[in-house]
Design goal:
The structure holds three protein chains of three kinds. In chain A, 57% of the residues lie in helices and 0% in strands. By secondary structure, chain A is an all-alpha fold. Chain A is globular and about 75 Å long. In chain B, a hairpin with a 3-residue loop joins β1 and β2. The chains are: A mainly alpha, B mainly alpha, C mainly alpha.
Chain lengths: 331, 201, 198
């Protein structure tokens, strides 16, 4: 009879989730893009991927050892940072580039702030911005897809910014090429199909929510549609804006990073929209051809303020009570 | 008109006073630990910048230039700024003693804020040809530059205060606590703002 | 005499204005892109610091307390104007390189800070020693930071190109790099200090 009673402390319902499992799922979602990059760019991209991941993981292990903390590289977060950093580099980058980038991303972007969950800026993007500022020539020497001896080719956005082409037709591409990744660009950003598949998988597994990616993509596309063409308003190419550059990669995988994005859904909509608008502004009027990386980093800095001012509705409080200040007298 | 937009964008985004010109770092690092004092400090700095921007322009144009004593620029400008700050101190003390206490030592320290003297000197360099003749619209442009320099200062100060409030709860390594991590954060913010390089509408 | 030496040495070591007291950041970050500029700024600031400390210590008993800060500022500003004119006349290239940071020496927190904390309370000779020490400390800090930034950031040293096994990281010559180097140096020095004391 006594066996019928189980006495235990809360929680009584457990979800089978842990940091390691979440990271593992995200890494699995990134795998298609990584594999396709090897197909499109060749074995050099595998080298970049491996070096970035190794340098990130080793840096984290070393720093945690130095600080006499338990080494948590098995949770897969450093692995993910390394992979995302590699995705932002040209496929034929010299191997010291991802190595230095990995060290910076983990040491400065993550561990200096206190480790997992404490960083303000997305570590992979911090690493990419650092590499871009340090070695701009290396970071913009993109490889032509399917070329055996690493011929360089400018990305569609670069061609647009430099005025060498005013549309897809001039570049000899069509939307299918853009979506499948048969164009110049960094390792992981080119194949929209792989990224979208990964994103859909993450949405299905409820790892990310639709708010940030959808608002980001729509805002950037709308901005590009309204302001994108030099011929006048509302003449831009919506689809081109969405499919080119690092927008899909950034919106699906970088802006949705738990640690550096807002907690509430409303906050995420604000965050995503502002990221998209900033991307559009930089792409249209800025000096750089691509603005996704900087847009996300700037909004990362604003996230503490967003979280402060966009508070979720308190459970059980109606709008009139909230506005009249009655709800402040908590029981 | 294009000049106005260039001033606005330049001072807030492209060559922000704190993140790129390195003016105003001491109060930036000192006051940015919490949001409320950061907002008050930002507003006070904007006020001092605009008022001293106006008075220094007038002093340069109608006092220093006609008498050919441009070399007295540094002394004159700094005295005008000190007087502005003194005046604002009195105003704040009268209107809001709580705010006065909250700002503490940082209020008189606006006098030594490189950003305030910096913007007055920059006005002379940018809007007077060879330091002698004012360009057309010089007064208005100087005032706008002072205003938007202050806004850019406050903008970055506000962002930093939000971040540092969160950092205070983090487990930062001891040797990095406080100032070093603030520098690293500012460095990453500066990296992020580099996205605006070359921005032209 | 020993006392003078101690006042001098503390400015370079234990109370280094940049690394320990953390004042005078604005010119440090802006000017440390290369060592030539760093030396120029360090010497200019030291000159102003020593002269203003000396004069303030001389007249300290006659300045009314309520207006002491404006008085110090005027004295400092005078010497800064002198430096400005000398630089414009004899080293115009350096003057252009240092830009607005020459007149900004007047609001360098180090100079006003020493005037308030030391020269207003001590006689002339110790004040001069203190000014020399703090100025040299400032110069030493500037040299360290600019050494790192110039060698790693542009592969040059004092304008001469080095033969190096690595590609220079341009970021170090730019604003974010300055902040990065500063943060890492201060953090590193603190860590070394904690190692030594433990």
């Amino acid at each position: 009879m006594a066996d019928k009673y189980f006495v235990s402390a809360a929680p009584h319902f457990r979800k089978d989730e842990s940091v390691g499992k979440i990271m593992g799922t995200v890494n699995a979602a990134l795998a298609p893009a990584a594999l396709i990059s090897v197909y499109i760019f060749g074995w050099c991209s595998l080298g970049v991927l491996l070096v970035a991941i190794l340098s990130a993981v080793i840096t984290e292990a070393l720093i945690q050892r130095c600080r006499r903390q338990p080494v948590t590289v098995s949770d897969g977060s450093a692995f993910m940072t390394g992979m995302l950093l590699a995705f932002n580099l040209p496929a034929n980058a010299p191997l010291w580039l991802p190595a230095v980038g990995g060290v910076f991303a983990i040491a400065i972007g993550k561990q200096a702030f206190g480790g997992l969950g404490r960083n303000i800026f997305n570590p992979a993007l911090a690493g990419r911005a650092f590499l871009m500022a340090a070695w701009p020539q290396r970071m913009t020497a993109f490889m032509r897809p399917f070329s055996v001896d690493a011929v360089t080719q400018a990305t569609p956005l670069m061609l647009l910014k430099e005025g060498k082409a005013s549309g897809l037709a001039d570049m000899g591409l069509d939307y299918f090429d853009l979506f499948m990744g048969f164009r110049g660009g960094s390792l992981g950003e080119v194949c929209g199909l792989a990224l979208v598949l990964g994103g859909v998988y993450l949405l299905w597994r409820r790892i990310i929510s639709w708010h940030t990616p959808v608002s980001f993509i729509l805002a950037a596309g709308a901005f590009g549609w309204i302001f994108g063409s030099p011929d006048g308003f509302f003449k831009g190419d919506f689809l081109f804006q969405i499919l080119s550059g690092g927008l899909l990669l950034g919106a699906i995988f970088m802006a949705t990073d738990y640690v550096t994005s807002p907690i509430t859904n409303k906050g995420q909509l604000v965050f995503g929209t502002c990221c998209g608008l900033l991307t559009g502004v930089i792409r249209r009027w800025g000096g750089y051809p691509e603005g996704v990386c900087y847009a996300i980093l700037i909004m990362n800095a604003a996230v503490p303020l967003i979280d402060r001012f966009v508070k979720p509705r308190r459970y059980g409080v109606t709008r009139q009570e909230r506005n009249s200040g009655l709800a402040r007298r908590a029981p | 008109m294009a000049q106005v937009i260039a001033i606005i964008l330049g001072n807030i985004l492209i060559s922000n006073f704190i993140l790129f010109k390195f003016l105003g770092l001491c109060p930036f690092l000192g006051v940015s630990t919490q949001t409320k004092p950061a907002v008050s400090m930002g507003v006070a700095v904007i006020f001092v910048m605009v008022s001293s921007g106006v008075v220094t322009w007038l002093a340069y144009r109608f006092l220093l230039l006609p008498f050919h004593i441009e070399y007295m620029r540094t002394v004159t400008f700094i005295l005008i700024i000190a007087a502005s700050v003194q005046f604002i101190e009195m105003v704040i003390l009268k209107t809001s003693p709580a705010l006065y206490r909250a700002l503490g030592i940082y209020l008189p320290l606006i006098t030594t804020n490189c950003a305030v003297l910096g913007v007055t000197v920059l006005n002379v360099e940018d809007f007077f040809v060879a330091g002698k003749t004012p360009v057309p619209g010089s007064f208005l442009l100087s005032m706008l530059q002072a205003l938007f320099a202050g806004i850019g200062f406050m903008f970055v100060l506000l962002l930093m205060s939000g971040i540092r409030e969160r950092l205070a709860l983090n487990d930062v390594p001891e040797s990095m606590e406080g100032l070093p991590i603030a520098f690293l954060t500012a460095s990453l913010m500066s990296l992020a703002f580099m996205g605006f390089l070359g921005l032209k509408i | 005499m020993k006392r003078l030496w101690l006042e001098f040495i503390k400015g370079i070591g234990s109370e280094n204005p940049i690394f320990f007291v953390v004042l005078g950041l604005c010119p440090t970050l802006a000017v440390s892109t290369n060592m030539t500029n760093a030396i120029g700024m360090g010497l200019a600031a030291t000159f102003v610091l020593v002269c203003s400390n000396a004069i303030i210590a001389l007249v300290r008993l006659w300045i009314p307390d309520k207006i002491r800060i404006p008085c110090y500022i005027v004295i400092i500003a005078t010497f800064v104007s002198v430096v400005e004119m000398v630089l414009k006349a004899y080293a115009p290239a350096l003057d252009r390189a240092l830009g607005i940071f020459v007149p900004l020496i007047v609001v360098n927190c180090i100079i006003l800070g020493r005037a308030e904390a030391f020269a207003s309370k001590n006689p002339v000779l110790p004040s001069i020693a203190d000014g020399l020490g703090m100025g040299c400390g400032f110069l030493v800090a500037l040299l360290v930071i600019s050494f790192v930034r110039e060698t790693l950031g542009s592969g040059k040293l004092m304008g001469l190109t080095l033969s190096r096994p690595f590609e220079p990281a341009l970021i170090l010559s730019l604003a974010p790099g300055a902040l990065l180097v500063m943060g890492l140096l201060i953090g590193g020095i603190r860590w070394l200090r904690s190692l030594r004391s433990s």
